[in-house]
UniProtKB/TrEMBL annotation:
Keywords: Hydrolase. It holds the Pfam family Lactamase_B_2. Belongs to the UPF0173 family. Residues 7-190 form the Metallo-beta-lactamase domain. It comes from the Bacteria. PANTHER family: UPF0173 METAL-DEPENDENT HYDROLASE MJ1163 (PTHR43546:SF3), UPF0173 METAL-DEPENDENT HYDROLASE MJ1163-RELATED (PTHR43546). This is UPF0173 metal-dependent hydrolase GCM10011511_13950. It comes from Puia dinghuensis. One of its GO terms (molecular function) is hydrolase activity. Gene3D superfamilies: Ribonuclease Z/Hydroxyacylglutathione hydrolase-like (3.60.15.10).
Amino acid sequence: MKLTFYGHATFSIEINGKNLLFDPFFTGNPMVKNVDLDKIKADFLIITHGHGDHTGDLVDVANKTGAQCVASAEIVNWLGKKGVKKAHPVNHGGPVAFDFGKVRAVNAIHSSSFSDGTYAGNPLGFVFTTPAGNFYAAGDTALTMDMQLIPLWAKLDFAILPIGGNYTMDPADAIHASDFIKCNKIVGVHYNTWPIIAIDADRAKADFAAAGKELLLPKPGETIEL
């Protein structure tokens, strides 16, 4: 699998020729460099929650790409009101099968509302089980004991965790999370976009290494193999 990091918490993963784009936030994202929305590729749009730094370009990208949106029922209903019809609602529960593999929505400890303050359903993380490998995209979340359930459902090859603190886990909590999910290869997101979520990236990598883990911090626009 290939992961392309665009900045903040926006990234895509290529699985068997399918492109999954997570939480599209390009316009106004200070980390994004030279991205042309008309050239963004997506077969699926995976939405963790409704905050503007995760849905800022959702409607535009959905319309440009024709991608299948996967999100909470409340976000799917909101998309419908915006003219986006190709969407599949999910919530906590059993896995849902798509042509690239299965997706299970799991708990995330956060909040979720649209830019106008209206309710956007439960914040979610997602566990992906695919023929190419398994991974967990936590979304915005605090450390939660519910993460200990994830190894019951999948042996993870890697996980994408927020590490910026203040609104989500910081690096120390993300190390505990990696223990809970039994995964030592972590891609860090949701950090250094603004001063309020700034971290010492070198120290975070060193702390992960000291715990026997690998923290990958791709640069905006960089693609890595996983």
